[in-house]
Structure formats: structure tokens, C-alpha cells
Amino acid sequence: MSIIEILFFALSAFAVVSAIMVLISKNPIHSVLWLILVFFAISGHYILLNAQFLAIVNIIVYAGAIMVLFLFVIMLMNVKNDNEPQKKLIIKFIGVLSGGSLLTLLVALVKQTTQLEGKQVMMKEGTIGLINPLGNALFTDYVMPFEISSVLFLSAMVGAVIIGKK
Amino acid sequence: MTILALDLGFIIEKLIMIAIVVFASLGIALYTTFGERKVAAILQDRPGPSRAGPFGLLQPLADGLKLIMKEEIIPNAASKWLFILGPGLAMTASLMTCAVIPWGSAMDIFGRHVALQIADVNIGILYVFAVVSMGVYGIMIGGWASNNKFSLMSALRAASQAISYELAMGLALIALLMTTGSLSLKTIVEQQVQGNWWNVVYQPLGFLIFFITAMAECNRTPFDLPEAENELNFGYHQEYSSMKLGFYLFAEYINMIMSSAIMASMYFGGYDLPFFNEASVAPNIAALIGVGTLLIKIVLFIFLFMWIRWTIPRFRYDQLMGLGWKTLIPLALFNMLLTGAVILAKL
């Protein structure tokens, strides 16, 4: 087993265990902290794929900014594990059913994709995750979707300012 | 010799380097606390610490001993694991920054060509950003786990301050990156060594914004509202005692050293000694001179931090937020626009 494989399995186990801990933690703050660890594990996978830029942006945006806002909201709402209302059994059952169907659907999709057949993951090679090729791709081949999404962000920003002023 | 296809010499080299950098940072931080007290004393016209050792030089050791010997108190209602995790995280995050800082060019030791940098990743400056944003968690977790509403409020103050000033910092950086065209700190420094001018000449406004935001990120006065010990009830580490408190206080000093190192590398030529031809002396000596130059630049920045701290009074919180959002961010955007226009005109 090469060091890449060892790292891959260690990171995957780390990600899965942390993701399970997100679900089974009673305290919402603990859930958020475990979720941050999941993002770290995923960033580790990006690094294995030689996508350093994606890895670090994943940490800055998700683990750094969005999760701080999550923590903010939960800390200010003062959610305690003892006053959380117990959900009804039927709702739990429906939740498990719908979640399970989504998982089945996703796995089936990945299995059926013809482009993925017989392909191996590129480890430690490929350049698309580095900043130069990514920037080139975004500003030449995908310039239209890029601009449209930036307009979307701008409108979200304007909306936030308007709501903040009220 | 190789372990799992890794070169053993490479691993040992990097481990030694990490140990040197971490312990050197800790040592400098130790004496920064001493420097802080001496600078404060000089500015306030009093002698400062002078009893422990010659000129009070053993004062930091006495302070450390005092912190270690104090009783360790964990509040009953605190979330125990997170209460311990908080200061550890703050300390780790501030130390992790040193991995991408180029401390010098390169030396030849025992026939090995050793670059004086732990890791030259091509996204260096973004790595620093990611680590800085992790530092917020140390404060938030500590403040929340104390189960004290004043600590929690202070942690929220700290987090919103950090997020607000990170934005302006990022925008100021983008303008710099537009001129350098690289995210690697090593490349940025090398460009300044080879080129005529340091980056501060091209980016004076950007540097000013970066300096102010760096001060805010380090929670230094005038931006020390997370702490505000004499007005707002000490802050997120109110419930902490002994060395856990020491970790929080110490992390602030290490942050200061790291941000000084980053400012020196990005805007002031890093290990570049001006008016000096590095090729005129042996490479090893040139590298050592470079390390010394960077350290002097760091010390000058730290002195500037202290000077400002003991001169300017603290902001009110709404003034702080107003400065961040209404002044620094538009100014940074303007700087970015200006830089873009100049680059376009030069093409």
C-alpha cells in the first residue's frame, strides 16, 4: 500500500466517522464542530487530488466563514440538548426513508455513469485544481456561467444590505 | 533510506526546521511580552519590570512560572472537553501560520540544499488566510464552553470583528496579488529581491489597509474589544486560569509575530537587505544575513504594534464595525480598481 492509499483510507474513515458524529451528537454545537472536521477531511482529499486551491478555498469558505455563522446562530439561540422537543416516531421513520432513497439514488447514478467506468482517480496529478488552470478555465471556457453567478451574488449582497437597513 | 517511498533525510530536515521555527517563535513571543511591558513603561515614563535578573530580563520566565503554578480551575457548568480544546486551538492556529513564511533563501548544510521555509505551497497566502480563520474557533469555543454569558458575548464580539476585518484584508491582498501574479510567499519575496522596489511602493494604500486589519485580527488595542479588560468585563477568557489563560494571552503575541512576518514578506521585501549584493558573500552567510534582516523587520513591526497600543485609546464597538465595513472595505475596493486600471494601462 502506498502512502497515498494509506492517507486516502485514513481521511475517508475520518470523514465518515465525523459525519456520523454530526448526526448523533445531542448538542448542536458539537454537531457543528464535527461538521468542521468533515470539511477538513474533504480538503485533505482535495490535496490528494492535487487540487490545493480547492482544498484551501473549501476551508476558508466552508470551515472558516459559513460554520462561524452557524456557530453564531446556535450560540445566540442558546439551544440546549435537554429542551429539544422529541420528534414523533412517524417523522423519524419518514426521515430515514427519504434519506435512504436519496442515498440509493446517488449511488445508483454514480454506478451508472458511463464516463466513470474503468477509470481510476487521479492521485497526485492533474492540474485543474491549481489556481492558474482553474482561473484560465473560468475566464475563457466558462466565462458566461461565471459572470451570471457573480450577478447572482451581487443581488444577494444588495438584498442583504436592504434587509440590514430596515 | 526511504520509508513508504519518502526520503528519510527530507523528513528529518523538515522536522528539525519545524522544531527550530516553532521554538524560535515561542521564544520570541516570550520576550515580546517583556518588550511590551518595557515599551509601555517607557511610553508612560516609568521603569517597567526591573527586579528579576539584570534589567528585568528574567521577567518572562517569572511570569510563565507564575501562570503554571496557579490553580487550574474548570467551572462546574463548563463543557469540559471544549473548555480545554479552546486555548489549544487558539495556540495551534497561531503557530501553524509559520509553515509558509520564507525565513531566508537557502543554505547548504552537510551537502544538502536546504530551503529556509517549511513548505513552499503555491497557495501560500491563502493558507495563511485559512489558518487565521481557524483561530476564530479557539476564541468562540472557549467563550461558549465557559458557560458564562459575558464570555459568550465577548466571543461573539471577537468573531464578528474577525470576520468583518478579514474581508477588508482579503480585498487589500487581492490588489497585491494582481501585481505579483503569484500566491506563493517565496515567489513574492523573490520578486522583491530581484526587482528594484519593495511592494509597499506599488501598494501603499493596500499596505495601510492590511496593517490596520492585521491589528484588528490580532485583537490589539485600539481593536481589543474582544478583551477590553477594564470596560467590558475581561472577555472570552474570563473563566480561564493558569496556563490555559496563558495560552490565550500567548497566542495573541504569536499572532503578532506571524502577522509582522507576513507583512514584512509581502510588502517589505522579506529577507531582502536593501543596498546589499547577496552574491558578494558566501551563500550560507548571505542566507543568515537574510534571516537576520527578516527578524529585524519583524521586531520593528512589533514595536509599531506596541507603540500604537499604548498611544491610541480603544474604539467603541459601533465605531469599530463602521470603520471595518464603511471605510476599509470601500477603500480596499477602490485600491483594487486603481490597481486594475494601472495594470490595464501598462499593457
CATH class of the largest domain in chain A: Mainly Alpha
Number of helices of chain A: 6
Kindly provide the radius of gyration of chain A, computed on alpha-carbon positions and rounded to a whole number of angstroms: 20 Å
Total helices of chain B: the number is 11
Q: Could you name the ranges of chain A where pLDDT drops below 50 across 5 or more consecutive residues?
A: none
Largest interface, C-beta within 8 A: A-B, 23 and 26 residues
Number of domains of chain A: 2
Q: What is the CATH fold-level name of the largest domain in chain A?
A: Four Helix Bundle (Hemerythrin (Met), subunit A)
Q: What's the SSE pattern of chain B?
A: EEHHHEEHHHHHHHH
Largest sheet of chain B: 2 strands, antiparallel
Average pLDDT of chain A, rounded to a whole number, is 85
For the terminal residues of chain B, how far apart are their CA atoms? 51 Å
The largest beta-sheet of chain B arranges its strands as: 1-2
CATH architecture descriptor text of the largest domain in chain A:
Up-down Bundle
Shape of chain B: globular
